[in-house]
Each structure stands twice: as structure tokens, then as C-alpha cells.
Amino acid sequence: MTDVRSADPAVAEPPPPGAGPEVGRAGRGAGLRAGADAALPAVGILVALAAWWLIARLELVHPVALPPPGDVFSAFVEKPAQMLEHTWDTTLEILIGFALSVAAGVLIGLSLASSRTVERMFTPLLVAVNAVPKITLGPLLVVALGWGQKPILTMVFLLCFFPIVLSTATGLTTTPADLAELVRSWNASRWQAFRKVRFPAALPQIFVGLKVAMPLAAIGAVIGEFQAGESGLGYVITQYAGIGDAATAWAAIMLVALVSILLYAALLLIERFALPWVRETTSSR
User: Fold this and answer.
1) Are 222 and 235 in contact (CB under 8 A)?
2) What is the pLDDT of residues 212-226, one digit of tens each?
3) pLDDT by residue (tens digit) across 9-51?
4) CB neighbours of 148 closer than 8 A, spacing ≥ 6?
């Protein structure tokens, strides 16, 4: 008699030996790696704080110039509302100046990429503007624009726009040859080629420029506040360093660093969601 149970489709074959535990171990391994990756930045910060504490403890640097981490933390705790208010002012200046730099930088980069004549005409001028030490322009910006946000935003813009221009022009002029050939085979218009191929292909390079420019925006805001600020963390640094309160000045410096880290992380998150194909096609990390 034929055994019909073996032909029953409802009866599933047993899984290969060890398949379940191996899948479970792979999942646990991925989870452990993700947890370790998330903990690495915290470990790096703790190492830096330990080195800072040791330098201050051994007085390798005079305490007036580099107070211990505990004193810096205490200085922030003593006046948190004031410090957070100045932090918000600086953050707002960074964001506005960065947004202006992105808008202008992408447009200028697009102009350079669209015409070789325009590129040859204006690239030396852009390089010259970028080569000028921006801190030397601070007093001139105050004279021309007065005190307040205008010279500060101008300083942020001057520091940020060149990397964005360069990355945009480079991305738009280095479209992969196979994609360019595919567009030509479709007889696509210039606008269709730009919208469907050239600009999406340039986005990874544009984000490189944005990631270079974001920390420069924080530097520009602080430099501008040194020269023309009536509030902000740069203003706090100059005021408290001038009266010998190094702990509060360092608290403001640490807040500048924290703001830069958070804004850079936000930009990485935007890049990950805007360009999901990049990580899948360029790297296994």
C-alpha cells in the first residue's frame, strides 16, 4: 500500500538541522553589533573627558586656561536658563546661515556645471573669496552691516557656501557614463535628463559638501558673535573669558560642540532617508 502521508501538501518537511539556532545567533549578533555601534560615540566622549580631567589634574595646562570638567559642568548648572537662551540664539544663526548657503551654493554650483564659460569665468573669483581669512572681514562687516544678526549670518554664509558650490558642480559634472548613455538612448530632453538622472546622481556628492559645511556654519556663527554679537555662545565666550571666568567660557565652548554634533547627526539622518539607495549600492557598512 502506498503511504499517502508523504504526498500530503499540508505536512511540512522538517527544517535542516541547526537552521533555527543559526538564524537566532545571526539575529543576536546583528543586535549586539548595532548596540556596540550606538555605544561607541559615548565611549569616545568618555575617553576625551578622562584625558581632559587628567590634563587638568596634572596641571599640564594652567587651570585659568583649561579648568577641570567638573568646574565647567558646575558653571553650566549655575546658570542653565541663560546658557540655553544663548545656545538657542547661536543655533538659530547656524540654521539660517546654513540654509542661505545651501540655497545659494546649489544654484551657483548648478550654474558652473551648466556652462563651461561660466565655470572658467567665475571659478577663480570663488576660489579667491574662499581663500580670504574670514576673521579679517569681521570688523568690515560690522561697519557695513552694523551690530546684530546681519554680519553674523554673512560670516556663516562666507564660510559655508564654497564647499556646497564645489560639491554641487562636481556631482553634476560627473554623472556615471552608463546613466548618461541611457538618457541619450531615450532621447530625453535636457530638463528630463537633469531631473531624472543628473541631479539624483549628484545628490551623494552634494551631501558631502553639506556635511563639510555644517561644522563650518557653527564656526562662522561663533566668529561672527565674537565681532558683532549681542547674544549667543560666542558672545558668552568673549564676555566671560574677558573677566577670567574660564569655566563659563568653556561651558559655552562645549555647548557649541554639542550643537554641532546634533546638527551634523540630523544631517546624516536626512541623508539616510533621502538617499536610501546609497548605502545599499556603495558599501556594506
Assistant:
1) no
2) 999 999 999 999 888
3) 444 455 555 555 554 555 455 555 655 666 777 788 888 888 8
4) 228, 230
Cβ atoms of 90 and 225 closer than 8 Å: yes
Residue 178 · residue 204 · CB < 8 Å: no
pTM of this structure? 0.79
* pLDDT(202) > 80: yes
Q: Report the distance separating Cα 45 and Cα 39, nearest Å.
A: 10
Find cell 556652462 and name the residue.
115
What sign results for the dihedral spanned by CA atoms 278, 279, 280, 281? positive
3-state secondary structure the chain: CCCHHHHCCCCCCCCCCCHHHHHHHHHHHHHHHHHHHHHHHHHHHHHHHHHHHHHHHCCCCCCCCCCCHHHHHHHHHHCHHHHHHHHHHHHHHHHHHHHHHHHHHHHHHHHHHHCHHHHHHHHHHHHHHHHCCHHHHHHHHHHHHCCCHHHHHHHHHHHHHHHHHHHHHHHHCCCCHHHHHHHHHCCCCHHHHHHHHHHHHHHHHHHHHHHHHHHHHHHHHHHHHHHHCCCCHHHHHHHHHHCCCHHHHHHHHHHHHHHHHHHHHHHHHHHHHHCHHHHHHHCCC
- Cβ neighbours of residue 118 closer than 8 Å, sequence gap 6 or more: 111, 112
Please state the length of the chain. 285
122: cell is 567665475
Residues 282 and 211 sit within 8 Å (Cβ to Cβ): no
C-alpha cell at 35: 548596540
CA distance 214 to 95: 9
C-alpha cell belonging to residue 74: 558646575
Compute φ and ψ for 120, nearest 5 degrees.
-70, -30
